[in-house]
Specification:
mainly beta, seven-stranded antiparallel β-sheet
């Protein structure tokens, strides 16, 4: 069960009925987690092929970003604060390797002009 929670599945949670004629079934949403590797080694970056990934630039702005698939990114410049729905903000800076998992729903605040390499699974 712990493995399923870590992967972000919807897990049913049974609740006793409030009324004998009424049966409730609630679902708890377990959010996928953003994974960050601070200052990964050059060998790691070469092994995953970061240099061949697309690049993306973004000016200072705010927007909603929901992920349908897993994005892998390596931050070259700038700074972003990603706030997953229902979770604490995460600040991502140059030199960070990041994985945004499929199913992540978030608000992005680009606080410094952003440039990143990115790839999708």
């Amino acid at each position: 069960m712990k493995d399923q929670q870590a992967l972000g599945y919807l897990l049913p949670v049974r609740v006793p009925p409030l009324d004998p004629d009424l049966s409730l079934s609630l679902f708890r949403i377990v959010m996928p987690e953003i994974k960050i590797v601070k200052n990964p080694t050059e060998d790691f970056l070469k092994q995953i092929g970061v240099a061949s990934w697309e690049t993306w630039d973004c000016p200072v702005t705010e927007f909603r970003l929901d992920f349908d698939e897993t994005e892998k990114a390596y931050i070259l410049e700038g700074e972003i604060v990603v706030t997953p729905d229902g979770a604490a903000p995460v600040t991502i800076v140059p030199g960070d390797y990041v994985e945004f998992p499929a199913g992540l729903k978030s608000m992005w605040r680009v606080t410094k002009q952003l440039k990143k390499h990115y790839s999708y699974d």
